[in-house]
């Protein structure tokens, strides 16, 4: 199994997920969820994290975490480890509760954090079989506290989210409610975390790529993570390049050798057969 590439630095913001081993439940009842939030509160206090949103599901959880210090992996090891011990003690079990390593997608804060906050709290509404029709019906996410229906737990920070609306707290909460409700209408057009390493503008991804270069990406890391921040094929094959056969060949070689695009991806961008691209990158055309 590929080992996730971790890019950690002070001030980084992540969408963190952790799933049950073999897709099994990590929360069997509300006592488990309460215990997890207690452990999370401890981790936040110890590591100085800022949690902007969270959601506890049945076999996984979501966190939107900002790390003033570069300590995500250290904190997650403690969080999942301590909860695993508590879960196994309570239920008379042993072994792993979570499946492998946690997932962490870097976010560009100003452009994507608010949208991912919506994505996280809408998980129970969108999940099959949950019978949750509105986010306020699920008591195990940050939504109710953010909109003022529940007291804000000590580990949750709502100031940034509500501050995006530039109004009084009550008016901001109403605006956030409308924003989340609109999310039920735009599914499929919103930015959602995938298997890559980061979500953000090309400038942000370029900075992430520099950090990966400093850290060193290895073959054992997932390809989608190693390749983050590379220029898009649309950028590589702009109008000027497409109009010049020599420039096209040079760009195709660069896309393959330097940026790691597959022959089939380059062929699709150029509108040619992949065997044509193979001849180009191998110097036979």
User: Ranges with pLDDT <50 over ≥5 residues?
Assistant: 216-222
The largest pleated sheet is described as: 5 strands, mixed
Spell out the helices and strands N to C. EHEEHEHHHHHEHHHHHHH
Count of helices?
14
The average pLDDT score comes to 87
Task: Please tally the β strands and state the result.
Answer: 5
Helical fraction: 40-55%
- Strand-residue fraction? 5-15%
Physical arrangement of strands within the biggest beta sheet: 2-3-1-4-5
Distance between the termini: 37 Å
User: What is the CA-based Rg, rounded?
Assistant: 22 Å
Would you tell me the structural class of the helices and strands? alpha+beta
What is the 3D form? Answer: globular
Q: How would you describe what is shown here?
A:
The chain contains 14 helices and five strands. The protein has helices at residues 30-47, 72-91, 109-121, 123-126, 143-146, 159-163, 169-183, 202-215, 223-226, 233-236, 239-242, 245-257, 263-270, 274-281; strands at residues 12-19, 50-56, 60-67, 103-107, 198-199. A five-stranded mixed beta sheet has the order 2-3-1-4-5, sandwiched between helices. Helix 13 crosses helix 14 (274-281). The longest helix is centred in the N-terminal third of the chain and has 20 residues, at 72-91.
